[in-house]
Design goal:
The complex is a heterodimer.
Chain A: H1 7-24, H2 30-37, H3 39-55, H4 66-87, E1 99-110, E2 116-120, E3 123-131, E4 135-146, H5 149-158, E5 162-166, E6 169-173, E7 184-194, E8 198-213, E9 217-223, E10 226-231, E11 235-250, E12 254-268, E13 272-278, E14 282-287, E15 291-294, E16 299-303, E17 306-312, E18 316-322, E19 326-332, E20 334-340, E21 343-350, E22 353-356, E23 364-371, E24 374-378, E25 384-390, E26 395-397, E27 403-408, E28 411-418, E29 423-428, E30 433-437, H6 464-470
Parallel strand pairs in A: 2-6, 2-8, 3-7, 3-8, 8-9, 8-10, 9-11, 10-11, 11-12, 12-13, 12-14, 13-15, 18-20, 19-21, 20-22, 21-23, 22-24, 23-29, 24-30, 25-29, 26-30
Antiparallel strand pairs in A: 1-4, 4-7, 5-6, 14-17, 15-16, 16-19, 17-18, 25-28, 27-28
Helix pairs in contact in A: 2-4
Chain B: H1 2-29, H2 34-37, H3 39-56
Helix pairs in contact in B: 1-3
Classes of the chains: A alpha/beta, B mainly alpha.
Chain lengths: ~475, ~60
């Protein structure tokens, strides 16, 4: 009889021992140990098999099986993955097994000379409000997830909130880095400060809600949401990943960088710059100075000011009442622009474009779509010089004889001048172009170009297969 | 002789496994990463195959 390998039962024993250890000592960094020491499993396994081969030499031992090779490959891949994760500082010992303990946090001090508040809270949430007060006060709650209350108490003792004055700066530190790796600690703080300070925040995973501050606000965080309102100075946000960022009533410049989902910006007096990939909805409303959006989901947008609204998501961009010059480059969105001035340069790959300048004199327009219709709705008495091209599509003209329509094969062009207005150039590589009068029924909505009637088909030779299919 | 061949073939798997484990120990605990040391696997496999061939072909010629 062929001897059977000992490795399977041994692996079962090891697995059992591992989970037993894990259950009896949940605080032990078992996963972190495995991330480092897993190769010894392979070595031990190899030695067992070697001993088996030598011991059962006479029995024509079969060697390593295909299943074992596959298992070894999986162990190597999994082990390498664990090691890389561990090497990059991510602790694998989950803290979710412990219990949550809460401790009150409270501290205050007079702050007559303080000009700048620096918040250093790696994890948690901060709700900071400025007011007519001469004091800085911090209150809130600290959560520590640990396995025993003694552990949590010890950590709480080591991570007392500290307020340090350095010149005209006040440093508020929660010292979360002093907590052991297997515990999770976070602070939810309510901070009240004099209105005239500047605020700086450094965080890893923290939500910020800051309002009524006359100074500048500068926040840097790996992950978290930010809500700002009534800020007097410049605002700079560098948030690695956010679900929601909102800013309203900002008097200075607003500069946002990072990645995330939704961004909502209202009533900003200074320049607004948004730099990064945001996959949710972006809303801009009442911006008195230039707006600049760069690289967010293949979106590039510049405008001189936005007294109205611009809102966009992954599939649509709608703008109403925007001051030009406007520059918009987008990959695949339907674009609808209403009431804009000065000039519009628009470039889109996939998506229909509807433009209604609304006001006189008309802005200069240069719009190009690789694949999609472009429809231009102009006031009835508008004056302009038109050059519209549909490389493979139809051209629709509502302005009659001043505009000359030419069709060459699949290409349709409209050229001409109505009065002496600005130049309007619209080009669609694959799609129709239309110039209609504003207020006219959207019946002028471009119909799909009619297809030429199909040529009569020659009678198909009858064969058995076709007749079978028809049956 | 056949016993030797099957022995060398049989130990090839375990020895490869030990080598892989040793290389990952080097990867995890020394500056020598698996990215640099992987050719050792080829060398060990080649040597084992060579040993198998060597015992397969006695000095008198192929069997």
């Amino acid at each position: 009889m062929r001897p059977r390998s000992l490795t399977t039962p041994l692996i079962l024993v090891m697995l059992g021992a591992f989970f037993l250890w894990r259950n009896l000592h949940p605080e032990a960094p078992v996963f972190d140990l495995i991330a480092n020491y897993w190769p010894f499993l392979l070595i031990a396994w190899g030695f067992i098999r070697l001993l088996e081969v030598l011991a059962w030499r006479a029995s024509r031992y079969p060697g390593v099986t295909g299943g074992e090779v596959v298992l070894v490959i999986f162990i190597c891949l999994g082990g390498m993955g664990l090691f890389e994760v561990h090497r990059h500082g991510i602790r694998l010992t989950p803290a979710i097994f412990g219990e949550q303990f809460e401790y009150p946090v409270s501290s205050q001090m007079p702050a007559p000379e303080i000009k700048r508040i620096v918040l250093d809270t790696p994890r948690g949430s901060i709700h900071l409000t400025g007011g007519d007060t001469g004091q800085i006060s911090v209150s809130g709650q600290k959560q520590i997830r640990a396995y025993t209350r003694e552990d949590a108490d010890r950590t709480n003792g080591r991570t007392q909130l500290e307020m340090t004055v350095e010149g005209d700066r006040l440093l508020i530190r929660s010292h979360q880095d002093r907590a052991p790796a297997e515990q999770r600690i976070s602070d939810d703080l309510e901070v009240s400060v004099p209105r005239d300070v500047a605020v700086e925040g450094r965080a890893g995973n923290t939500d910020f809600d800051i309002s009524d501050i006359n100074g500048a606000v500068e926040l840097r965080s790996g992950r978290g949401d930010v809500h700002l309102s009534r800020i007097g100075g410049n605002v700079r946000l560098d948030i690695g990943r956010s679900a929601a960022i909102s800013a309203s009533d900002i008097h200075g410049n607003l500069d946002i960088a990072g990645q995330g989902s939704d961004v909502q910006i209202d009533n900003v007096s200074g320049q607004v710059t948004l730099n990064g990939a945001y996959v949710g909805s972006l809303e801009f409303h009442n911006l008195s100075s230039p707006l600049r959006v760069q690289g967010a989901r293949n979106l590039e947008l510049r405008a001189a000011a936005v007294p109205g609204t611009i809102s966009t998501d992954l599939s649509d961009l709608t703008a109403d009442n925007v001051l030009g010059p406007i520059h918009l480059v987008t990959r695949s969105r339907d674009v609808h622009f209403e009431n804009f001035t000065d000039s519009l340069e628009l470039e889109t790959d996939h998506g229909d474009v509807e433009l209604e300048p609304g006001r006189m004199p008309l802005p200069r327009i240069d719009a190009h779509s690789t694949s999609g219709e472009i429809e231009l709705a102009l006031p009835e008495h508008a004056e302009f010089q038109l050059q519209a091209t549909a490389e493979r599509g139809e051209a629709v003209n509502d302005f009659g004889s001043p505009i000359n329509t030419q069709v060459e094969g699949r290409r349709a062009m409209m050229t001409g001048a109505v009065g002496s207005g600005p130049s309007i150039r619209i080009t669609s590589d694959r799609g129709a172009v239309a110039v209609r009068k504003q207020g006219s029924a959207p019946s002028v909505r471009v119909p799909q170009p009619p297809r030429p009637p199909a040529p009569p088909r020659p009678p198909a030779p009858v064969n058995l297969k076709q007749s079978e299919v028809k049956l | 002789m056949n016993g030797d061949i099957s022995l060398i073939r049989a130990v090839r798997g375990p020895i490869m496994m030990i080598t892989v484990g040793a290389l990952f120990v080097l990867n995890n605990f020394t500056p020598y990463g698996f990215r640099e040391t992987w050719p050792i696997l080829l060398i060990v496999f080649g040597l084992l195959t060579l040993m198998g061939r060597g015992s397969n072909q006695p000095p008198g010629g192929p069997q």
